[in-house]
Structure prediction request, 366 residues.
Amino acid sequence: MKLGIVGLPNVGKSTLFNSLTKAGAESANYPFCTIDPNVGIVAVPDERIKKLGDLYHTKKVTPATIEFVDIAGLVKGASKGEGLGNQFLANIREVDAIVHVVRCFEDTNIVHVDGSIDPGRDIETINLELIFSDIEILERRIAKVAKQARMDKTLAKEMDLLEGLKAHLEAGGMARTFELPEDEDAELWYKGYNLLTAKPTIYAANVAEDDLADDGANNPYVASVREKAKAEGSEVFVVCAQIEQEISELDDDEKAMFLEDLGLTESGLDKLIKASYSLLGLISFLTAGEDECRAWTIKKGTKAPQAAGKIHTDFERGFIKAEVVNYQDLLECGSLSAAKEKGIVGLEGKEYVVKDGDVILFRFNV
Ligand SMILES: Nc1nc2c(ncn2[C@@H]2O[C@H](COP(=O)(O)OP(=O)(O)O)[C@@H](O)[C@H]2O)c(=O)[nH]1
Ligand SMILES: [Mg+2]
Prediction:
């Protein structure tokens, strides 16, 4: 799973990325310092595997991970190639979801590309570039389908979809607010276009330290981000990238104290990672043993054999049964054998839909 961090130059993308990954991507006070996309792997905070690890006296605890990509500053005209725009847009097309960073902090030392702090305008600037880029994709597809439609009747239906989508985008709408007809073909075509504005998005309002404790409630810039996000059904997330960077350099004890001083219980990044996880419809199942306790990422609705396939393709190919126990139940019983005695370990087959927090032992044969 890959999330792309996008936004105008100098809004705090790299600062946020650095604190997420501590990967040391260059962060500097001028546009285009992150020309190549920087990719970082981030652990999904999960108390459950730590507790399982204690129960099993395990040697190794491995969290689930997601990937973040720091995508360099998009500017007005990116879809026409401004500021290496097309390259950046191509990078965005490869991600599963978008974190759109918006500058809501004042700092006269940090240049704003458009000369003032105005999150509503900034969001529109970026979203318009994404929309233009999507329109181009649709136009290319329309040209192709128009040629073939004379031979193939089902393509007339796709043409309707394309024209409808294009009109929606031209009116300034994001593809994710388009009302897709309830039709399997349409859904497949729509997915196939891989539109930027169809990707699930979280807006990250990057505020000054003072605005953290009340979650930006008194910051009118944040209010305008919330308004924009609401109109398209997206989430907003208030963060101070600079503070997150400082926090990321602390050890766990120092971190807890620092957060308490700020009136917070959890770092913004932990919240962001969890929010991204739920935005993408992801859950974790767990495996436990003396060698390793581990969390694995799957989409909600994944069945047991495909979940097994995340661990190893052999597990999926040779899938026989899954021994499944809820994480909380297992902890309460104190051991797997005690859970078995109580009869709460299920033996599940191919059609079993895996749930968040399932502790699973797969039986397979290859
Ligand atoms: N005051 C303040 N400065 C910030 C904050 N986040 C980032 N900056 C500064 O803004 C400048 C640009 O940040 P950077 O992360 O490189 O922006 P990017 O171009 O969006 O990647 C750097 O000098 C950062 O230190 C913040 O929350 N508050
Ligand atoms: Mg940057």
Notes: The chain is about 40% helix and 20% strand. The two ends are 28 Å apart (CA to CA). The longest helix spans residues 119-148. Residues 7, 9-15, 27-29, 34, 73, 105, 107, 110, 206, 208, 240-242 surround guanosine-5'-diphosphate (ligand 1) (CB under 6 Å).
